[in-house]
Amino acid sequence: YLDTIGLASDKYLALEEMQDFVDAQGIISFAALCRYARAERRDWWRILCDCGSLQMKEYIKSVKWEIDQALNQ
């Protein structure tokens, strides 16, 4: 399992799943995503700790920006 989850394609798939989760749940906090991943999705947690945190932080930041823009119109 650890060899399989370490594949680059699996990391990209997990990042896609995380983005879908953020969108579906309306998450606008990296901390909220981390808490969920740590408690419920250890595969996501490892990716966030190893290599995916920057990408997910920027994604969540962009989602928050889009929400703020929509509210200010």
Strand content: under 5%
Number of helices: 4
- Rg for CA atoms: 13 Å
The helix-and-strand class reads mainly alpha
H-E string: HHHH
Termini, distance in Å?
48 Å
**Biggest sheet character:** none
Kindly state the percentage of residues in helix.
over 70%
Low-confidence stretches: none
Q: Residue-averaged pLDDT, rounded?
A: 91
The general outline is elongated
Number of beta strands: 0
List keywords for this structure.
single chain; 73 residues; mainly alpha; 4 helices; elongated
Write the layout of secondary structure elements.
Layout (H helix, E strand, L loop, with lengths): L1 H4 L2 H18 L4 H11 L1 H30 L2
Helix pairs in contact: 2-4, 3-4
Explained architecture:
The protein is mostly helical and 73 residues long. The chain contains four helices and no strands. The chain is elongated and about 40 Å long.
Write a compact overview of the structure shown:
The protein has 73 residues and is mostly helical. It has helices at residues 2-5, 8-25, 30-40, 42-71.
